[in-house]
Specification:
single chain; GMP Synthetase, Chain A, domain 3; three-stranded antiparallel beta sheet; two-stranded antiparallel ribbon; 27% strand
């Protein structure tokens, strides 16, 4: 499967990606010279991990007729401050007291199937090139 996005520069520090019918806007925080009008690209990357895990949690619940009301996920980034790199991601799934206890471990396994997490774990290769029309 190949997905093609078109990236454009609408002004300031904003950078947008067009994906079919969807436009994803990004901007830099004011401290980095942007207007803070949209999330920074790295923030969207991190959000993609949590929302991906979330869709697996939601699908797990829906498949079993479990009401997802009250279920939330909290995600934390673990960073190497010296290198400025992401060292890890921690996701906690908060469930209400009424959540069936026999499904807690299975819920963790479901969230662990996140496609974004799997893509990162596969360590894809990147190729960046300059081309002319």
């Amino acid at each position: 499967m190949s997905e093609t996005f078109t990236v454009s520069f609408p002004g300031g520090k904003r950078v947008d990606a067009q994906m079919g019918l969807h436009r994803i806007a990004t901007d830099q925080p004011r401290t980095a010279g942007g207007d803070d009008s949209a999330p920074a690209p790295f923030s969207l990357f991190l959000a993609s991990i949590g929302t991906c895990a979330g869709i697996y949690v939601l699908s797990f619940c829906q498949a079993r007729g479990i009401d997802p009301t009250g279920i939330t996920l909290t995600q934390r980034s673990v960073r190497d401050r010296e290198a400025g790199t992401l060292r890890g991601v921690e996701v906690d799934i908060h469930v209400p007291d009424a959540f069936p206890s026999q499904y807690r471990d299975a819920l963790v396994r479901a969230a662990s199937n996140c496609a974004v997490k799997k893509a990162i774990a596969a360590q894809p290769e990147f190729r960046i090139a300059v081309t002319s029309p």
